[in-house]
Every structure is written in C-alpha cells, then in structure tokens.
Amino acid sequence: MYRTMPCNDGWLFHQGFDDAFLGVGFDDHHWEQVELPHTPQHFLPSYHEEGFHCKTYTYRKAYAVVLGEEETLSFRFEGIATSARFYWDGQLVAEHEGAYLPCTVEVGKRGTGVLTVVVDAQENALFPPFGGSMDYLSFAGIYRTASLMILDNTYVSSLKAATPNLETIAVEGRATGCDGQEILLALLDKENLHAQGSAVVEDGTFSYTFSIPGLLPWSVDDPHLYTLQASLDGQVQQTVRIGVRTAHFAKEGFFLNGRKIELVGLNRHQDYPYLGYAAPPSLQVEDACILKELGVNLVRTSHYPQDPSFLDACDELGLLVFEEIPGWQHVSKESHWRKRCVEHVRAMIGRDCNHPSIILWGVRVNESPDDDELYKETNALARELDPHRMTGGVRNLRKSSFLEDVYTFNDFSSIGKGRALLPKKKVCSAQVPYLVTEFCGHMYPVKQADPPSLHTEHALRHYQVLDQARAMKGLAGVIGWCMHDYFTHANFGSGDQICYHGVLDINRVEKPAAAVYRSQVSPIPVLTLLSSFSGGDYPKAALPNAYVATNCELIRLSRNGKEVGLFAADRKRFPHLMHPPVLIDDFIGNRLMDEAYLGESERKHLAKLLGKVGRQGGQLKGLDTLRMAWVLLRHRLSYQDAVNLFNTYIGNWGGEAGTWVLEGLIGGKVVVSKTYRVGGQPTVVLKAVRTELSLLGPTYDMASIQVRVEREGDDRLLPYASIAYRVEVEGPLRLASPGLDCTKGGCSVIYVRTIGQAGDAVVRVYTPLGDKEVHFTVG
C-alpha cells in the first residue's frame, strides 16, 4: 500500500541552529509557527545586503503516525534552498544537496517522533548550480510543499507513460515486494473509464502498452488530459495525468503531433517580491496563466526545474515547456559536483517525465563551456530514461561541441538595428534542429520608471527578433529573455540586485513590451501605446515618432476631438509579423484643416515644418527657414501667427490641455479605444487576479493584488508615481507582504494568504490619493 498526504502546516521555525535543538525534550514552544512553503527572510524589491539570506535555519515538527505492522514512514520535500540535514528524534536520517529537486527522507517503522530539518542556505560550491558567479539568487528555506508517505511491504512506487505515436501509450512502472503479482492499469478520460489492461511485476518492474485508435491528442489549443491509474490488490496506488502527443524537432523546425508550430516563448524565473521562492501553488498557476494570456506557446524554466504545480498548470493550459538542470555558466572539475549534475538529470526526468507540456530536456548547464565528458553522460542518461523526448543544451557558443538533439543558443547579437538574429549557418550546421533560447534581456534593460523612449526601443527590439524569426529558415523558434524582472547578485543587475530584463516587472505588472507578444495572437483587440504623448518626456519637448502595439488593421489618432489621421502597420520595417506595430509619424495631420486658407499640399508641407521646429528646439535651419517665410508671406501671416501655429499644433504651451484618443479599427469599425488625458485626476487602482480563495489545497492559498497609480479614465501606469500606502486586512486572511509600502514605477504588489478559516475578508489600502478595498471569499 502507498499512501501520501500533505504535511505543510504546524511547523516550528527558528533562525540558526544549535545541537540542543536535537534533544527529544527540547522546548520549542517559543518558536515561530509557520507553514510550507516558507521563506525565512523577506526579499524587498530594492537594495539589500548581499548574501543576507545565506544563513542556517531550523524547522521542527512532532508526529504521531499510527503505522501498521508492515508499514514504514517517509517524507518528501519538493524544494529546500540550498541543502539540508534531517533528524528524527535527534538521529541523523538523511542529507540533501541542491535547491531545485525533491528529496525523500526515510524514517522507518517509527511513527512517533520529532522531525528536525536544518537548512543551510549557503551557495555551496560543492554542488550545482554553485561554484561560479551566478545571475540569480537561490533564496532560502523549505520553499516548496512537503508530504508524508506511508508504505507497506508491497506497493507501486512509480508510474510513467510515453506516447511514441498518437495511438500508443507505453506504460512503465516500478513496484516493491510484489514480484509475480498483477498490476491493474486503468486509463480514464475525466471520470470515465476509457481502457484498461494489466501487467505482471517481474524483478520490481512492469510494463504495458495501450493501443487505442482515436485518442484525443494534447495540443497547445486543446490540451486534453487523461488519467492513468495503477492498482494493486484492488487499491489504487499511483495516479498520474498524461497527454497523448508527439513532439519532434527537425532541421526545418518544431512539430507537435506532426504539425509544424512556430515556437515563441519567454524565459521564467520562479522568484517573487517579498516571498523569494516561497510561492504556493496558486501563485505558480497565476504565472502560467499570465504567459498563456500573453500569447506565448513556450516557456523555458531558466535555469532549473521549477515547481510541479507550475508544470501542472502548463499541462492544463497547453503551454509548452523546455526544462533544464540547475546551473549558470560554471562547470566544476570536482567529481562530487559533476556527479550531482548527472543526478540532477535523473531527478528532473524522474519527477517530470509524465508532463505532456515538456518537449525538451536541458541537460547542459546554461551558457557553460564545452565539456564532452560530462555532457556525453547527461545526454546518454536522458535518452535512457526518456527515449521519446529530445535533449538540448543552452550555450552562448557558436559551432560548439554538439552532443544534444537540438542546438539551443542564446543570441544577443541584436543592437536595435540591422540583423536581429545571427544566420543559422554562423551558429550551427543547417542540418540540425535549432532553437534560440534567449534574446534581448541584458542588452536593453528597462525599469517601469524609465523614460518612454526606452520602453519604445525595448518593445521594438522584441518586435525585430520576432519578425526576423518568422522569416528565418531552419529556426524552430525564439524564447525572449525574459518574462519578468528578477532578483540577482550585486555584481549583476542595476545596483539594487534586480535585473530589469522582463516584459513584466517583478510584481508581474506589464511593461509596454508585453503587448508585443499579446498583439500577435490575442483573439480580442489589443491597443497599447508604446511611448507617451507628454512632450516633457522627450528632448526639446518634441514628440518623436510613436508606435502602437495592436492587432487592429488601422489606428485613428485624434487630439482634443479633432482627427489627426489614420495610420497603418509598419510593414516596411516589420514585413513578416502577423501584426506589426503601427507607426504614428504625424501629430498634426488633418487638424490643419482648421486653417482653411491652406491647400492640401500646403498643409502637409507646413506640418513637416512645424514638426521640425519642435524637434530642433524652436528653430528652423537653412532652406526650411525660407520655406516657412514663404508660407507666412503668401498668406500675410506675422511671426506671432507662426508662434500661434506652433503652440496650437506642436507645443500647446499655455493653451487647451491636450487629450489624445487612439481608436483601433477592423473592417472600418472601431473595436477598441484608449484615451490619454493630460492633467487628469490620479488615482490608485487595485487589481486582484482572484477574489475567491480555497481551503481545499495541500497548503495555504494566496492571491496577488496589483497596486497601480493611473489617471481616471486612462489605464496606463503613471510611471513616476511613488505613492505611500498602508494595508489592513479584515477577516480570515493574512498579509504576506509589508503593511507599509510605496509604489515604485507607479505600481507595487500586495500578497494575502489564507489562515485555515472560511469566511469573507476585506483588504483595505489607505493612500494619499484615496482609500480602496478588495473583497475576498474564503472557502
């Protein structure tokens, strides 16, 4: 028999460790009571002392489990940063190295006792990903969930399934103490039995192959999932979810179920402000939903295996995954480190082989040098454990030693002009599968509070890569760096130990570049201004060309109720995209029709001259001075008349406050509209992803609330707003972020979590711009 149950509540926590903590009668009543996932430190998204979290921490919990005569007790921890020792009633029973994969602690037949977990958060060079300089943090604590397992002397220990084709499910499993016995296998479609079979255990293993025509395939558009169960002696012992699909990389590209798909993805780190890594399953699911809503079809788990609940969500949403072993550039020569690296491959595939979303195993440390001895071993092991999935190894080396099935390469060659991607033949052979696994990123970091010209350029660089990728032969796809800003070490990032590389910020608030991805595939109209209509954001207070991310056919621009003109997608610069951005290069346009004395050609001529006056600091040069003089003389206009024209159509200094309106048109009809007001009332907006929280999960539930500063009637962030706020919670919720905080770049985030009680709750936020609240239901 195999029984498992969560063991995430009721832990006692203390920073530090002393041998006295291992005493059976040790008095720990004064320790802090915590639940898993747990972070020993709060990680403010700002400046902090380097390595402040790299300490020792102790967790204790007493158990009184009634075991049968043949039963034993074990524990499974999904993630501990970065190593741990485990004691049962003061006796060392297990040790574990590594922050990203599970460990099992076998206690034996003793069901009553105290489990003490001593966590060391040091970045220990003895095992991956440590030993070199690393562009991310590993955080601290028991940061994922844990479970308790009760086993008797006969049980099914593992179950995995592969689909070599769309009509075959090949099942393999392991069982203990039951050689010669029959394992019943059942394939369920939702709650309905779809097929069944049986296999006899021989030498601790069993296998069976289902051949079933007409199985519903798993795909990015319809991620159909089946349930596979293994029963022994009439009792279900193992249950896994599977999807029927084939995934294959070839020199021509990537094929899912035999159909070619252009891969467009983003890299993801698993960190959160305040929480570090300690985000419960509900927040992991939110991240997967964000990626799916952005319109990407692939995520790379950079640079380590991520939470199982994130992968579960990818299975459910139809989001493809490239999962890789822990590491960043460094490969040690020490045998222990290298052995652990190989074991990470085994543990990653063992844990995640049943996820249909995973299409590629990363068996090479990210951006590491060639090491044929090590990587021959990791590739061989991956192919032995999972012969139906291909391998990749992310590098930043061209023409490097190619041992994997797919040449995966970080291409940071784009500088905003010229080619956005290196030709395939300069990176690898044209005859091998090829996937670009990072681009943009550190080449052009952008903060929410940066000037709009930087955000525009950031977005355009993502556009450029996506455009060239669609035209590039032999490229399976591209994965942008990255989904969101993330914590890092002091020798990386922007001095505040944050890398601002994301299309979202660390709070998961979108930057303009996020709309680049959303606009390509969204079924609903998208319209996002990538810049600003505020002259003071630009040199000489002159508006430069503006870009709009949209999937509309045309954009109509108006100012103060008067139409400027219609603008189309910039297909000259971005000829290959489904939906290129719309270029707005004229902010006067039809408004000059109010000057009835001007002919059509004169209006266009004068609009260009007035634009130059703005861009050139209120003056004209050379022949343009003569051209303006000719317009004034021809229509008997004075110098003051020229100033008035400039103020009306370009400067608007001291005149009527400007209101700009963008309208997106499809089939000649307005389908979306955005209004941008100058001087409107700023307000705080609270945006909760979910307002119904559950008590039925394996651990506490958590919700995020974005705090946004906007103008009334305008949903864009006010990026220079630093607004202090205070948070109060009423009802069965608790804050998991500071009660006092302020917005940064016009936004912040609040986290609230359940406390094991049902009912209604209110989160109130008090600010100088007014008080707001969000209502929750917990049940």
Computed Rg: 30 Å
- Globally, the shape reads globular
Major sheet details: 6 strands, antiparallel
* Strand order within the widest beta sheet: 3-2-4-10-7-8
Strand content: 25-35%
Structural class by sheet pairing and helices:
alpha+beta
Low-confidence stretches: none
| Tally of DSSP β-strands | 48
Helical residue percent band: 10-25%
Q: Overall pLDDT, averaged?
A: 93
- Counting H and I runs of at least 4 residues, what is the number of helices? 10
Cα-to-Cα separation, first versus last residue: 32 Å
If you had to describe this structure to a student in words, what would you say it looks like?
This protein has 779 residues and is of the alpha+beta class. It has ten helices and 48 strands. The strands form 13 sheets. Strands 3-2-4-10-7-8 form a six-stranded antiparallel β-sheet, with no helix packed on it. A six-stranded parallel β-sheet has the order 27-26-25-24-23-30, covered by helices on one side. The protein is globular.
Question: What does the secondary structure layout of this molecule look like, with pairings?
Answer:
Layout: E1 2-6, E2 11-15, E3 32-34, E4 56-64, E5 72-77, E6 80-81, E7 83-88, E8 91-97, E9 103-108, E10 112-120, E11 141-142, E12 146-151, E13 155-165, E14 168-176, E15 182-189, E16 192-200, E17 205-211, E18 226-232, E19 235-242, E20 247-250, E21 253-256, E22 259-261, E23 263-267, H1 281-294, E24 298-301, H2 308-317, E25 320-324, H3 335-352, E26 358-362, H4 372-385, E27 390-392, E28 407-410, H5 424-427, E29 434-438, H6 452-471, E30 477-480, E31 486-487, E32 498-499, H7 514-521, E33 527-529, E34 546-550, E35 554-559, E36 562-568, E37 582-584, H8 600-615, H9 623-634, H10 639-651, E38 659-666, E39 669-677, E40 682-688, E41 692-693, E42 702-711, E43 724-730, E44 733-735, E45 740-742, E46 747-754, E47 759-766, E48 772-778
Parallel strand pairs: 23-24, 23-30, 24-25, 25-26, 26-27, 28-29, 41-48
Antiparallel strand pairs: 1-12, 2-3, 2-4, 4-10, 5-9, 5-12, 6-11, 7-8, 7-10, 13-14, 14-17, 15-16, 15-18, 18-19, 20-21, 21-22, 31-32, 33-34, 34-37, 35-36, 35-38, 38-39, 40-42, 42-46, 43-45, 43-47, 44-46, 47-48
